[in-house]
Amino acid sequence: MKFNDVFVVDDDKIFHFIIKKLLLNNNINVTPKFFENGLLAIEGIKSKMDRGENPPDLILLDINMPILDGWQFLEEFKIIKDKLAKEIIIYIVSSSDNQSDMSKANEYQDEVKDYYLKPMTAEDLKTIFSYPA
Amino acid sequence: MLQKPYAEKKFNSDNGIFYKKLVTKIPDLIFQLSLSPTGDLSSPFLNKAVINYFELSRQELRNFDLSQRIVPDDFQKLLSSIQSLDKNTDFWSHEFRAILPTKGLRWFKAVANVERDIYNYISLYGRISDITEEKQRDIELKISEERFQFAMEASSNGIWDLDLRTGKVFFSPQSLRILELTQDDVIDTNEKWDERIHPDDLEKYLKDFNMHIKSETDYFENAKRMKTKSGNYKWILSSGKIIERDKNGLPTRLTGTHTDITSQKENETAILKNSQIINEQNSRLLNFAHIVSHNLSSHTGNFKMLLDLIETENDSETVLEIFEHLKTSSNALNQTIEHLKELVDINTHMVHKKENLDLNLYLNKVLGILSEEISNNKVKIFKQIPKKCNIAFNPSYLESILLNFTTNAIKYSHPDRTPEIYYSMRKEDGKCVLEIKDNGLGIDLEKHGRKLFGMYKTFHKNKNSRGIGLFITKNQIESMGGNIEVESKTNIGTTFKIFFSNEV
């Protein structure tokens, strides 16, 4: 198991619950930290840096969120990512199957590993956490 | 007719053989006619050329009578033209038709000198020429001129004819009529015409004209607006072509037509406007489809994931927890559907009832509704709206819009200062603009501008933010034919400008 420190950035608290349950049911032994918008997640990363801690291994990122949405989070992330001690793997997990969102994700190829459409299945989660096999 | 005419005798006796031969044999048609005092017309002399041309046989010649060849009507006219010759006239000319055995109907012109003798005989010496072709050309020209004249007067198109050397132009009455002008207005040069062209269309007009002058185009064609006598503009299509060049090949004359295409252009504009409306509605429809798909699928996604969990869950307490989440999701879905229904209502009933509304009245009503919030938050209200300021709008929309902007201004007020809200009304480009300005938190438009009016978008860490108000407000304003603009600076404040459409 490679991912130990996981951020879930999503304004939907039900989704937080679902992720926790899915991880538990699939014996993935990880306790993610949950953030309700992009700004809180960026602050979370920055405070880790300030404390001299390693950044998270994995981020599951929603697109539609208040204050800073997924795209705005990625813009802020671009600014700080060179200062990070190690690479962070980011997956977008969104219910938007809008073509414009899909193609926009392509503009963040350097930051975003893949795009998962909600509803998320146990299989999706297993695939993400088995990387790299 | 017993007496031989004097003239003939004179010819035979006085002239030498040379002249006789000459006159007889030259290819010109030479004749002598003689009219007796009793009105008999004879032809004492016809040269060989006449005899051949008129196809007279020897037999016919023996007792030849002019009426045998000349069209009866024309013969009578010819006779009377000689009879009515003035005493002092020594020149005669007449045109007539003759029917010739093989040549058929031909036009002739006879010219002759006139002499009178003491016996009151009139003698005509002269020549005849066949003018059939000339006549035909004349007739054809006359027909075509008549046709042209008719076309020029009957057609709604004007005609122009420009002499490039002098700059003078002939404009047909119809050309002038299009611009409500008459001949009295003396529009006879290119300059006088060109100065009526709309300034915005002049450059293209001159370019099109010069391209044809330089023979870069096969013909000249240009549509432009021109000022009529009453000061209105009409769309006029000019077409033309060079029809004459000098020996160096440079154009000297151009002619063409003018057509009033105003109604055509107006139709085009109307079609363009309609297609803009259709495009706008299409993009709103598409936007709506995205909103529906996104907002519904986030809930249905939750249902799916929660139901998946229930299937494999054994712990009864966790099952109860999942049920709670299902309930929450279901409520949220209902709420979303309510919002979407509201949105559909706004966008589908395009013909909302507009009424003439007194803005002051509605603003005071809304401020009354919010009086408790206003006093609790110590909000200062400033109003600069002229009395009897009426706008055409849907009453419940106007109330909802004023309510929304006012509650937003209070909700997002700055914690360090007394909230102030300014309402003012003015005119911008002939449109009524309502400005609502606050000194609140402001919005970072660089970051949030593109999603400011989106559905379920919130920008502040405020628990009461639902992200539906501005979205509904914008839709209501647009469905009334208006639009909305925003200016904002973080920590300074926000100004919303609502542009009202004047159409009732």
Structure description:
The complex is a heterodimer of chains A (133) and B (504). In chain A, 40% of the residues lie in helices and 17% in strands. Chain A is built from five helices and five strands. Chain A has a five-stranded parallel β-sheet, covered by helices on one side. The relative contact order of chain A is 0.19. Chain B has four domains: 132 residues, PAS domain (Beta-Lactamase); 106 residues, 2-Layer Sandwich (Beta-Lactamase); 78 residues; 146 residues, Histidine kinase-like ATPase, C-terminal domain (Heat Shock Protein 90), CATH 3.30.565. In chain B, helix 10 runs antiparallel to helix 11, helix 11 runs parallel beside helix 16 and helix 14 runs antiparallel to helix 16. The model of chain B has no long low-confidence stretch (mean pLDDT 86). Chain B is an alpha+beta fold and 504 residues long. In chain B, strand 16 and strand 17 form a beta hairpin. In chain B, strands 2-1-5-4-3 form a five-stranded antiparallel β-sheet, sandwiched between helices. In chain B, strands 7-6-10-9-8 form a five-stranded antiparallel β-sheet, sandwiched between helices. A five-stranded mixed β-sheet of chain B has the order 12-14-15-17-16, with helices on one face. The chains are: A alpha/beta (133), B alpha+beta (504). Chains A and B meet through helix 1 of A and helix 10 and helix 11 of B. Chain A: This is Response regulator receiver domain-containing protein. Chain A: InterPro entries: CheY-like_superfamily, Sig_transdc_resp-reg_receiver, TCS_response_regulator.
Please describe the topology of this protein.
The complex is a heterodimer of chains A (133) and B (504).
Chain A: E1 6-9, H1 13-25, E2 33-35, H2 38-50, E3 58-61, H3 70-80, E4 89-94, H4 99-106, E5 112-117, H5 122-129
Parallel strand pairs in A: 1-2, 1-3, 3-4, 4-5
Helix pairs in contact in A: 2-3
Chain B: H1 6-14, H2 17-25, E1 29-35, E2 41-46, H3 48-53, H4 58-62, H5 72-83, E3 91-100, E4 104-116, E5 122-130, H6 132-154, E6 158-163, E7 168-171, H7 173-178, H8 190-194, H9 199-213, E8 220-227, E9 233-245, E10 251-260, H10 262-312, H11 316-348, E11 355-358, H12 359-369, H13 371-376, E12 380-384, E13 390-393, H14 395-411, E14 420-428, E15 431-438, H15 445-448, H16 469-479, E16 483-489, E17 493-500
Parallel strand pairs in B: 12-14
Antiparallel strand pairs in B: 1-2, 1-5, 3-4, 4-5, 6-7, 6-10, 8-9, 9-10, 11-13, 14-15, 15-17, 16-17
